[in-house]
Specification:
This protein has 14 helices and 14 strands. By secondary structure, the protein is an alpha/beta fold. The chain is globular. Bound molecules: pyridoxal-5'-phosphate. Pyridoxal-5'-phosphate (PLP) binds next to helix 4.
Length: 435
């Protein structure tokens, strides 16, 4: 790898005859040639801050790419704030899952999200976003970007095409009044903890009508946080999103042992994000990138098993007398939401809301009696986690906003892992008995 520096991962086999290889297959070797690293089957971890140039002319050429003098990024390894072999291989593999031209990895999901917003938004601009967003994302837009003259217009996750058309016009008018533009449409689907899905196709149609389609140079990019269903159960680029964002900390990392993030999309959107990452830093470190490559080898297996477990556990929970209701994408009761699900999702995920009959005391008793499931925030790991958003992740959300979002004191957030499903049911059964 190191003796022929290259920005793009090494060309590898992505098809056999007419058969295009699936992401699950590509995760084992895509972008890595063992023969360039002493035959090491797995990529070594490249712990270096800087890379030797083959010649002075190469050094100049690489920097022309880094600084944007030549578009499309650099074709050589330069310095570890910009890129590195582990990160390049990882980015090539992440792009495969999303059907994106390029991916960029970051030290956390929030770094990815903040750099993305800062890339596209300037003073006077307006960001259009679905709500609710992950609290830190919503806070960055409302509290930090506002200090730089960027404002926002938000809409509820389930908004229809007609409602979205109105939102786009509102945003346009607001931007014009502020002397700016609409910088980005930013989505999160399903919303946490309501599990409301965003109709990405309708957002794309509304965007196209208001600002022109994806190929229009004046258009507004649609970005989506796909952390809850990606990369397996939802491929938003297929439905009209331009940029996909992940907290890789969750399902992709999948073992609750690292923090990382990514952004993926067409090169024209990724180039400016890469430029700002080059300046600010925030690229994932080589060790984390290596861990993520290991995780990607099993991401389909893990997510499939977790999804099957969640279906079994939810079927059992739904019939339990101490359960008020479930917010689970496999049991949607709203026809509009079901229609969005059918068009956008290939699986219901393994993260859901469990409403225990009663209030905080009952929810606390349930959580305190769990023996297998761990009492912790986060999701998408091999182990089952449970938490109480009203008392934990959403504690600082004002009461009226909580009520609006349906974040009640009896809402337990559950992320099902890859344990034996019947063991999990036994655990929930004894914890519910203690309520
Ligand atoms: C966890 C999470 C984030 C933030 O990611 P970090 O890796 O913790 O920075 C963003 N969006 C969603 C939906 C998340 O669940």
């Amino acid at each position: 790898m190191a003796d022929t520096p290259a920005r793009k991962p090494k060309a590898s086999i992505t098809r056999i005859g007419n058969r295009e290889l699936s992401p699950a297959t590509l995760m084992m070797g895509h972008g890595y040639d063992p023969m360039l690293s002493e035959g090491s089957l797995k990529a070594p971890i490249f712990l270096t801050s800087t890379f030797a140039f083959p010649s002075a002319a190469d050094g100049k050429r690489f920097f022309e790419g880094i600084t944007g003098k030549v578009p499309g990024g650099t074709d050589g390894l330069v310095y570890s704030r910009f890129n590195g072999p582990n990160q390049q291989i990882l980015e090539g593999r992440l792009a495969v899952w999303d059907g994106a031209e390029e991916a960029l990895c970051f030290s956390s999901g929030m770094t990815a999200i903040c750099v993305l917003f800062m890339t596209f938004a300037s003073a006077g601009d307006v960001i259009v976003h679905s709500g609710p967003l992950y609290a830190a994302s919503e806070g960055f837009v409302a509290k930090t970007l506002s200090r730089f003259g960027v404002s926002y217009v938000d809409f509820p996750a389930g908004a229809t095409r007609a409602e979205l058309d109105v939102v786009m016009e509102q945003a346009k008018a607001k931007a014009a009044a502020q002397g700016g533009k609409v910088a980005m449409v930013y989505l999160e689907s399903p919303a946490n903890p309501t599990n409301a899905l965003v109709d990405v196709e309708a957002v794309r149609d509304a965007r196209d009508a208001a600002f022109g389609s994806a190929n229009d140079p004046q258009t507004v990019p649609i970005a989506i946080d796909n952390t809850f269903l990606g990369p397996l159960w939802s491929r938003p680029i297929d439905h009209g999103a331009d940029i996909v964002v992940y907290s890789l900390t969750k399902y992709v990392g999948g073992h609750s042992d690292l923090v990382a993030g990514s952004v993926s999309g067409a090169t024209k959107w990724m180039t400016p994000v890469r430029m700002l990452r080059n300046v600010m830093g925030g690229i994932a470190d080589p060790n984390t990138a290596w861990m993520l490559m290991r995780s990607l080898e099993t991401v389909e297996l893990r997510m499939t098993r977790a999804g099957e477990n969640a279906a079994k556990v939810c079927a059992w929970l739904a019939a339990h007398p101490k359960v008020e209701k479930l917010g689970y994408l496999g049991m949607i009761d709203d026809p509009r939401q079901q229609d969005i699900f059918d068009r956008h999702c290939s699986g219901a995920g393994s993260t859901f809301s469990l409403y225990i009959k009663g209030g905080e005391p009952e929810a606390f008793r349930f959580l305190d009696h769990l023996k297998i499931a761990k009492l912790a925030v986060s999701l998408g790991g091999t182990e089952t986690l449970a938490s109480l958003p009203a008392a934990m992740t959403h504690l600082s959300v004002p009461d009226e906003r909580k009520a609006q979002l349906g974040i009640t004191d009896n809402l337990v957030r559950v992320s099902i892992g890859i344990e034996d499903a019947d063991d999990l049911i036994a655990d929930f059964e004894q914890a519910l008995a203690a309520v």
